[in-house]
Structure formats: C-alpha cells, structure tokens
C-alpha cells in the first residue's frame, strides 16, 4: 500500500531530474540504466567516496532524529550542522567535475538545508518544525536515489 502511494511522487521526482538533465547542454550526462535511473560513471575510489558521504548522512539523520525524540534541540542542531556545507569540503575536485550539474545542485541544496535546520533548531527549539524540515530534505534524497545509480565494477557497468 505504501509503495503504491509513493509511486506518483517517485515518478515526478525522476521525471524532474531527467528534464533537468536534458536541459543542460555541454555538461556530462549519465547514461540511462536498465531500470531507468541514470548511471554515474565513477571508478571504485570515487564510488566509495560518494557512498561514504551517504553513510555519513544516514548516521547524521539517525543522531538528529534520536535527539529530536528526546527534545534535545542542541544535539539535533549539532547533528544537522555536521551534514551541512562543511561536508562539501571533503569532495575531491576531480570527483566533483565528473558529477552531473543536477546531481551537484541537489547535493548542495541538501547540505544547505541541513545548515538551515541547525540554525532553526537552535533558535526556534521546535521539534515539529525541525521534523518538517528534515522530511522535506529527505524527499531530495529520495528523488536523487530515484534518478541516479552508481553500479559496482562487479556488475560490469562501472567503466
């Protein structure tokens, strides 16, 4: 039942991502995959770097939701801030250049969202507000995962 409710949102997110990709001439465009998602062509080290960032996001979201559940807004802000723009400094320039513009824009907007969540958590001290912000930010993660994939070398798709 939940999957059926998510399908329209996922279709919209995927369609939006593809429309943006088609509109950006002169930028690297990922190849379409058999499942319809665009393939990001990365080597093993680059793939590992992207996946590590995603694991850091997951860890940060877990810390943030735990803090919100305890109504510890300072800890929630600290967790959110850890996922903010400061995370972008760790991405090697060569990897950044390989990523499609739309992917980078979506990623930067997620980092900016977490910085805003941190500021609002500290100033507003409103759990519901922070959860609403987190939900909106996680929708961007859902859209990205619906639009892109990074296959493994073992799958024979990574070049």
Automatic annotation (TrEMBL):
Which SUPFAM superfamilies does this chain map to? Cytochromes (SSF47175)
List keywords of the entry alphabetically.
Signal
Tell me what organism the protein belongs to. Thiobacillus sedimenti
Q: Which InterPro entries does the UniProt record give?
A: Cyt_c/b562
The positions making up the signal sequence are 1-21
Taxonomy, superkingdom: Bacteria
State what protein this is by name: Cytochrome c
